[in-house]
Amino acid sequence: MRSYRWAILAVLAGLAAGLASAAVSVKLELIIFGFNIMYIVSPLLAGFMESYVAGRKYGASTGALSAILVFFAVNIYGWLFPAEPIQWNVFTVGGLLMAFQAAFPTTVNFILAAAITYALGLLGKGLGDRLSGGDGTVALEYGPHGVGIGIAAGEAVGDPGDLDGLRRLAVERMLSDAESMGGRGVVDIEVKVTVIGGELVAVTATGTAIE
């Protein structure tokens, strides 16, 4: 069983390294564009030191607890007891984001992944709506009315630039499917356009085959 003593010592080592680097940064006034580098360097150094000691002595991760503690410590100092007020600019905001990333890497990476996935989803939906002219479904009617005998379907996949041709091909395949059922026409046709990976579209035509 692992000794939790090394886990505690790893956190303390990270905390000491982070706070020491913050003290040096303040003492030497290591400021870039009105932003002290301790906001970025100190949490990173704390997390590195803690992870190094934990990996060598404890044999498992301790969650970079010292990086989180140092993150809060330097920000409390910087915002409540500043020797020089922090200047708001693009570098300040970027530095704070990097410091937050250093202290909470898993949370930030999850948020970024979720945001990117959501953005790609919106992009795909927008492309699909633009290609189909609405919600991705185009209602049609084709053939004489009669007794429904089943659902016929046809699909075509290809380049978005050939959307009209893909629609025709999907409808032709749907009609062939209806004919194979013994149908003489199709009604209540729907043609749906789906974007695949941002580079291809799949056009699916479905309808009720009738006798």
Overview in brief:
With 211 residues, this protein is of the alpha+beta class. It has helices spanning 4-27, 38-58, 65-80, 90-103, 105-132, 163-180; strands at residues 31-32, 35-36, 137-142, 148-158, 185-196, 200-210. The protein has a 4-stranded antiparallel β-sheet with strand order 3-5-6-4. A two-stranded antiparallel sheet has the order 1-2.
Helix and strand topology:
Elements: H1 4-27, E1 31-32, E2 35-36, H2 38-58, H3 65-80, H4 90-103, H5 105-132, E3 137-142, E4 148-158, H6 163-180, E5 185-196, E6 200-210
Antiparallel strand pairs: 1-2, 3-5, 4-6, 5-6
* pLDDT < 50 runs, ≥5 residues: 131-143
Radius of gyration: 31 Å
Oligomer: single chain
Sheet with the most strands, sense and barrel status: 4 strands, antiparallel
Number of helices: 6
Principal-axes shape call: elongated
Spell out the helices and strands N to C: HEEHHHHEEHEE
Number of domains: 2
Secondary-structure content class: alpha+beta
Distance between the termini: 75 Å
Number of strands: 6
Residues in helices, as a percent range: 55-70%
| Averaged pLDDT | 75
Description of the structure:
- The protein is α+β, with helices and mostly antiparallel strands and 211 residues long.
- The protein folds into 2 domains: 4-103, no CATH class; 132-210, Hypothetical protein apc22750. Chain B (Translation Initiation Factor IF3).
- The strands form 2 sheets. Strands 3-5-6-4 form a 4-stranded antiparallel beta sheet. Strands 1-2 form a two-stranded antiparallel sheet.
- It has 6 helices and 6 strands.
- The model is unreliable at 131-143 (pLDDT under 50).
- It has helices at residues 4-27, 38-58, 65-80, 90-103, 105-132, 163-180, and strands at residues 31-32, 35-36, 137-142, 148-158, 185-196, 200-210.
- The N and C termini lie far apart (75 Å).
- α1 (4-27) runs antiparallel to α2 (38-58).
- Keywords: Membrane, Transmembrane, Transmembrane helix.
- It holds the Pfam family YbjQ_1.
- The chain crosses the membrane at residues 32-52, 64-82, 102-123.
